Amino acid sequence: MIHGRVTRWLHFGLAAACLLAMVVGLAVEEPEKARSGFQRLTFGAHQYLGYAVAALATLLWLWSVHTGRLGALVPWFAAARRAELANSARTSVASLLRLELPRPEGDAVAAAVQGIGLLLATALAASGIAIAATAGRLSHLLSEFHEALAPAMWTYLGLHTVMAILHHLAGHGSLDRISPRPRDSRA
Questions:
Q1: SS3 111
Q2: On the chain, which terminus has fewer CB atoms closer than 10 Å, C or N?
Q3: How many CB atoms are closer than 10 A to CB 137?
């Protein structure tokens, strides 16, 4: 299944914004500790990239509601979706035990993994916005939460990228299906 154009562009935009925000975030100092122009610049860039992540994540959530994919992204709230996820997980484990990569298209595990990434991006963006909107002890607690999520997002981005490449190399065409310009539309 090739994802629709809107989904592909939102996925690309969110992935790019998350990656840039995470890379810039490595150089960020808290605003009150930022002494150089570079430190102030990186903080500002990180903040605005976080706003972009928030906007793109919100659009992806809304688009998943519009397209009826929300339940696939967050299957934990419906018994039928949980059962589908459990069956998909069993099938995936069986494939892996045969040293095969399970095909990701239409797979409940793949959709739930996408949902986890979207939840992580949303939590990071929302906590960043909340930090900017608060002060004192609450801002400090939110900063701790925000910083604690960063390793989870790095892990997600790394594993997600590796799995997409492995699926593509296995002939599943994963990169073509999610590319903003699928192979059949490239000139």
A1: helix
A2: C
A3: 8
- End-to-end Cα spacing for the chain: 21
Judged by DSSP in three states, 69 sits in: coil
Return the half-sphere exposure (C-beta side, CA atoms, 13 A cut-off) of residue 41: 3
- CATH number, domain at 175? 1.20.950.20
Token reading at 95: 């494939």
| CA neighbor of 116 nearest in space, from 168, 64, 153 | 153
Q: What single-letter DSSP state applies at residue 2?
A: P
Whether the CB-CB separation of 150 and 25 falls below 8 Å is answered with: yes
Q: How many domains is the chain partitioned into structurally?
A: 1
Phi (first) and psi of residue 159, to 5 degrees? -65, -40
**Higher model confidence: residue 48 or residue 168?**
48
Cβ proximity of 109 and 88 under 8 Å = yes
Residue 137 pLDDT more than 80? yes
pLDDT for 182 equals 63
Domain span including residue 174:
5-185
Model confidence pLDDT, tens digit, residues 7-53: 889 999 999 999 999 999 998 877 666 677 888 888 889 999 999 99
Those residues with Cβ within 8 angstroms of residue 27's Cβ, 6 or more apart along the chain or in another chain: 38, 39, 42
